[in-house]
Amino acid sequence: MLWSSCVALSFGLSVNAAISVSAQQTSSPVIGILSQPIGLRKTDQNTEQKEEYVIAASYVKWLESGGARSIPIPYDAGPGMVKDLFGQINGLLLPGGGSAVPPAVHQLLNLALDESFPVWGTCLGFEYLVQVLSSNSSLPVLTDGFDAENNSWPLLNVQRRQLYQDDRIYQIVRQKNVTSNSHHMGVEPSAFRNNENLNKLFEVTSVNVDGHGRPFVSTIEPRNPHIMPIYGVQYHPEKNAFEYGTYAGTNIPYKAIDHSEEAVEFSAYVARFFVRLVKAHNDNNHDGSSVHRHHSYTKHRQYPLVQTYPVKQMLAFEQYYVIPSAKQLDKTIKQSASKLLRG
Fold it and tell me: How far apart (Å, rounded) are the C-alpha atoms in residues 196 and 201?
C-alpha cells in the first residue's frame, strides 16, 4: 500500500514528502461511500429534470471521527469506473437510502470478496448486503411492512463476537435506546436462517422487534472476519453524533435520535471499530503478510474527497453533499485531462 520513493519523486515530491504521504495513507485510510439518488431536480433551463445524487454529511463526519477520509462512489458508476475507484479506497461504506441495488454494488461486493476487503453496510446498505449475498434464493430474504420508521431502541439477543465484545458497549446497546431505526424493509430471523448462503457467511449478533412486535435482524457479523470482513447493521450509528435536524423555525427534532452521552459514545465506538478494521486489513493479513498493496489514493484530481462537493440541507439530513453522476464525473475527468495535455 505504501508509495515507493521512486513513485513519489515522479510526482515531484521529495523522499521526506513521500514518507509523509505514505504515513497518511496508513494512518487515515480512504473509504468509498456509495452515493444515493434522492429524486429529480430541475436544470437551469427548467426544460428537463435530472436525478440528484447525494451523500449525507453524517457518514463523512462519522468516518472522520474514527480516523478515516472518504471519497464518493457514484451510484450509477459503470464497471470501468467502479474498478478504478476500488483501487483508490481501503474500505467501503454502503449507506442508508431508499433505492434499488445498483450494478455497482454487485461489482464492488464481488471485488471485496475476492480480496478480503472491509465493507460496512448501514440500513439500506445492510439490505444491499443480504440481497446480493443471499445468492438469489427463491425464498425472499428482504421483506416489506416493518413498523420501524423513526424509532430508537436497544438491541435484543446481543451476541458478543467482535462488534459488541467491549463490556461497556455491550451493556449500553442492551439497556439504552441508542440504535436509530428508519426503515420499513427488513429481514426476519427465520428468513435469514433459511438462507443457506447467508448462514454460511454471517452470524446474526442482534435482533429487534418493530412497533407491532415483528422481529427483524439488526446486526450481522462475518463468521470468518479474516477472510470476509463484512459487517451490516439495520440501524444508523452515525445519526447519534451527527444528525440534529429540527423542523423549520422550531426546536422540535425531526427524528427520534438519542443524543445521550452513551449514544454518542456508542456512535464513536462503532466508527473506530470499522476504521480499525480497515487499517488492519490494509496493513497486515492475519498471517502477518502484507495485503491490499495496490489500494492507494493517488487520483486526487479525478476522485476528490467528499467534503469538496457542494453542501445542502434538508429535513432528513442536517447536511448532505451533492455528488456528480458517473456521467458528469467522467466528463469532468476528461476535461481535466484535456487541459493538462494542452499545458
Answer: 9
Residuewise pLDDT in 10s, the chain (343 residues): 333 333 333 333 333 433 344 445 558 999 999 999 987 555 555 545 567 899 999 999 999 999 999 999 999 999 999 999 999 999 999 999 999 999 999 999 999 999 999 999 999 999 999 999 998 667 789 999 999 999 999 999 999 999 999 999 999 999 999 999 999 999 999 999 999 999 999 999 999 999 999 999 999 999 999 999 999 999 999 999 999 988 888 898 889 999 999 999 999 999 999 999 999 998 754 344 445 456 899 999 999 999 999 999 887 789 999 999 999 998 888 877 666 565 5
Catalytically annotated residues: 123, 236
In a domain, 193, yes or no: yes
Q: What is the CATH number of the domain that holds 240?
A: 3.40.50.880
Q: Is residue 93 in some structural domain?
A: yes
Q: What is the pTM of this model?
A: 0.88
Question: Structural domain of residue 168, as residue ranges?
Answer: 30-342
Q: Which residues of 293-310 are buried (b: 16+ CB within 10 A; e: fewer)?
A: eebbbeeeebbeebeebe
Q: Report the domain count for the chain.
A: 1
Confirm whether 48 is domain-assigned: yes
